Amino acid sequence: MRDVNGNKNLQQDVLQLLQENIALKARIRSLEDLLQFSRGERAALELKLKNMKNNTHDADVQAAKLTKYCDELEAVVMAATRLLAVCDRDAVVHAIQDIVANLIGSEEMALFEMATESYEFEAIASCGVTEEQCKQAAEGLVGKVGRSGLAVFPRSGDSGMSACVPLFLDQHVIAVIAIFDLLPQKVRLEQPDIAVLKYLEKHAGKLFVLRSRPEVEKHI
Amino acid sequence: MKKKILLVDDSRTSLMMHSMILNKHTNYELATASDGEEAVRKAEAESPDLILMDVVMPKKNGFETCREIRGNQKTAHIPVILVTTRGEEQCVETGFESGCNDYITKPVNAQELVLLVQSYLRGK
Is the Cβ pair A101, B11 closer than 8 Å? Predict the structure, then answer.
């Protein structure tokens, strides 16, 4: 009698275990489904995040580009405002020196003008450089830039210059700005400096002539 | 009340550049002087909260002007930042001997200038 009861209990236990096993398997299946779904969700979210990061990076790049452009524009506006406020030739020369010293960052520069008879470039204003340096520059890079009409921004120190920029009146070079060493704390010319020099290249020459000959300006 | 900065420089380009930077990034009132003598007069008359001053100027250079500002009871308390093209140590030493609080080198970096100015004016 006791054996029969024992067997019954055992059968019931086995049955219960089988049922629990089935239930657990079903639970595992549903958890596996859930896991798979979650993995899919995670992959989708990761993709979304990656896209967002890419978009943010693009926006950052765009913002950096715009900031750089604004810096250039600001520098050019300052140079233009300074230059256009002057009323005579000496003031134009002084304004160019002021722009080079305080906006670009060099206290060693010279302004060369083409002599009408000899077509040679002669220094008409300079600061921080010797007459000999000016003479050598006129015979070297300044003359070359004057003839070619192409601005030069030497990277190596061979020429002793950081920039040599022609000033145009219409299509003719009438003067050349030579910038020798930059200030010690200024490592190199930056993009806004180049933008300012390009502005001077295009407009300072015209102003140079107009402010020298007010009658021409009146006529224009 | 807006805090006031007195900008002192004989270079119009510098004055314009510093004004542009400070107007763009801060809300301070700006006054200008183009030489040392005018700076001393304006420092006394306008009592700015800070003076940003060039070193190489006609009539009275930045060091002399700074000494005079420090020697005047009415202006002695005003912080002075010198703006110099000469980053050499000796020049900086002379600046501190003349009583300046700080210095910054030309051509100024906009962010550096704003941070320096704010560090003197934030607590005031």
Answer: yes
Pairing of strands B4-8, B29-33: parallel
Domain membership of residue B42 as a residue range: 4-121
pLDDT in tens, A33-46: 999 999 999 999 99
Containing domain of residue A130, as a range?
A: 87-219
Mean pLDDT throughout B41-66? 94
Which distant-in-sequence residues (6+ apart) come within 8 Å of A39 by Cβ? none
CATH code of residue B20: 3.40.50.2300
Q: Which helix (H) or strand (E) holds B93?
A: helix B89-97
Contact residues on chain B for A81, CB-CB shorter than 8 A = 16
Indicate if A76 and A44 belong to the same structural domain.
Answer: yes
Among B13, B17, B107, select the one facing A186 at the smallest CB separation: B107
Chain B touched by A196 (CB under 8 Å): no
Residues A67 and A125 in one domain: no
Task: Give the pairing type, strands A163-169 and A172-179.
Answer: antiparallel
pTM of the model: 0.78
Q: Which of A82, A99, A107 sits opposite B85 (nearest CB)?
A: A107
Residue A211 is predicted with a pLDDT of 66
The total domain count for chain A is: 2
Say whether pLDDT at A219 is over 70.
no
